[in-house]
């Protein structure tokens, strides 16, 4: 259960990095934050899928 919550928190954190609005003086950081958010969402989504498949295979 803790793995699920940690991975779900990572996905939510990644989405928040994508959707964050930066001030005008820091607008050069926006592509960096978007890239980090996309990578974070991708990694934690794959981790959720892998843990779900492992869980299904162990219960069968």
Q: How would you describe this structure in keywords?
A:
single chain, 60 residues, mainly alpha, 2 helices, 0% strand, elongated
Compact description:
With 60 residues, the chain is an all-alpha fold.
Strand-helix topology:
Layout (H helix, E strand, L loop, with lengths): L1 H18 L10 H30 L1
Helix pairs in contact: 1-2
Protein name: Holin
Keywords: Membrane, Transmembrane, Transmembrane helix
Organism: Paenibacillus spongiae
How would you describe this protein?
There is one protein chain. The chain is mainly α. It has one domain. Helix content is 80%, strand content 0%. It has 2 helices and no strands. α1 (2-19) packs antiparallel against α2. The longest helix is centred in the last third of the chain and has 30 residues, at 30-59. This is Holin. Keywords: Membrane, Transmembrane, Transmembrane helix. The chain crosses the membrane at residues 36-57.
Would you identify the regions where 5 or more consecutive residues have pLDDT less than 50? none
Give the overall shape, derived from the CA principal axes.
elongated
What is the ordering of alpha helices and beta strands?
A: HH
| Strand-residue proportion | under 5%
Share of helical residues: over 70%
- Sketch the major β-sheet: none
Q: Count every helix, treating DSSP H or I runs of 4 or more residues as helices.
A: 2
Transmembrane segments: 36-57
Protein name: Holin
Keywords: Membrane, Transmembrane, Transmembrane helix
Organism: Paenibacillus spongiae
């Amino acid at each position: 259960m803790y793995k699920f919550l940690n991975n779900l928190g990572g996905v939510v954190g990644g989405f928040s990095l994508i959707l964050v609005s930066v001030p005008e003086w820091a607008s050069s950081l926006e592509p960096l934050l978007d890239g980090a958010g996309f990578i974070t969402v991708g990694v934690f989504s794959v981790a959720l899928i892998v843990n779900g498949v492992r869980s299904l295979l162990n219960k069968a």
